[in-house]
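Reading a protein record of the kind used here takes only a little practice. An example makes this concrete, so a full record is given next.
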Amino acid sequence: MSVAAGTPCLRRFPVPRSGRVLLYAAEDALHIVRQRLEGICAAAGHALEALDVQVITAPTVRLDLAADRQALDETVAKLKPRLLVLDPFVRLHRIDENASGEVAPLLAYLRELQRRHDVAVVVVHHAKKGAGRVRAGQALRGSSEFHAWGDSNLYLRRDGEDLTLTVEHRAAPAMPTVTLELAQRADALALEVVDRRNSPTPPSSVDERITTALTDLDHSLPFSELRTRCRVRTATLYERLAALTAEGRLVRSGDGYRLIGRQAAAARQSR
């Protein structure tokens, strides 16, 4: 969205060269892809229809097949995108990702594509299971060719309740780690940067965050708004809301959640 619109990514990182974007989202139905793009655009104040984002609608794209490589090359040559996004790598082939001799030719093709058409190529790739404690580059699934191939590698990881983004560059210093959150604003769902320097210290427990969010309200709060205010994982929030409701501290209605009378008064007094 940022490349197509020429506006800062995550409302923070400038885009020096904007232009058309070509996207292949292999794991999602087209209506889901459109829904996600509309949410990301809405979060930044854009309309998807106004942006030059082209979506590959082919049922499969196999980089290990010569015919598909040629078709992708011809599509890039015709559309001349500034950015090509392929998501995820595991759906783009049927090779052994652990065998560097099989992975290297596919990555070499993408490098050739990038140079031939002067297009930035983003490949989304998964991490190994249980690799949360190892160095980001070593956590990539499959061959080490992936880590060596990228000019810039961006790693999104979960650290407790936080999402962290770390970046490595081949020819530039790494930037400081950035904390992100998946925030919902009305119908828009998109990642946002969390600035810890300007944020008040949150309550120490999820229960306290929920209580703080609901205190002094004379109406129920929808789950989506609670999640935004509490900044916790969806599963964690569901679990604690169910527990607090069962304990009689919250009441749930069709409009969301609210504190029960005595609980709300106690919360005000403690403040």
The first helix runs from residue 2 to 5. The chain has a mean pLDDT of 88. The beta strands are 21-25, 53-55, 83-87, 120-123, 152-159, 162-169, 178-185, 188-193, 250-253, 256-259. The first strand starts at residue 21 and ends at 25.
